[in-house]
Design goal:
8 helices, 3-stranded parallel β-sheet, globular, single chain, 48% helix, 162 residues, mainly alpha
């Protein structure tokens, strides 16, 4: 039985964590910086945020990887670090989950690419699939229990991520 199945069997509902970005800003992340870089440069601070959410009762914690695609990281000239940042995001969250005194799931956060799909924009469906697949590989290899595709406004982008 998977961790998710165990939790769903044991509980009537699951509680997810809250805003990662806000907590990172409170911890010192500067405006305009790539939050995903902190998974490598400030893992202890990211883990403390996860631990605070676990302590508050969260059953599921989302990785610090919302903007972890090559399209988003390109804005910071870090598009070649997608796998590294996402794997580290899942590893840090997994450490916090495994340290809990109860089962806690790690959900790999996959946010929108920030690009528009063709014909409205320049991103092809195939490019979107490749970008989300690279992110998902890192999250999976880092220990995420599930992938959490969130806040996309284009159903075709959701399809590409799934």
């Amino acid at each position: 039985m998977t961790r998710l199945q165990e939790l769903l069997t044991a509980k009537q509902f699951l509680v997810l964590d809250g805003a990662m970005g806000t907590m990172l800003m409170d911890a010192g992340l500067t405006q305009g910086a790539a939050p995903e870089e902190w998974n490598v440069t400030q893992p202890a601070k990211v883990r403390q945020i996860h631990e605070a959410y676990v302590a508050s009762g969260s059953d599921v914690i989302l990785t610090n990887s919302f903007g972890g695609t090559s399209f988003r990281l390109k804005l910071h000239k870090m598009q070649d670090r997608v796998y590294e940042f996402n794997k580290a995001a899942a590893e840090v969250a997994r450490q916090a989950a495994d340290a809990a005194d109860r089962p806690v799931l790690v959900a790999g956060s996959i946010g929108p690419s920030g690009e528009l799909l063709q014909p409205m924009g320049n991103m092809s469906y195939e490019q979107a699939v490749a970008a989300f697949a690279e992110q998902a590989r890192g999250l999976s290899d880092g220990g995420a229990d599930l992938l959490w595709v969130e806040t996309m406004s284009d159903i075709n982008e959701v399809r590409a991520a799934v």
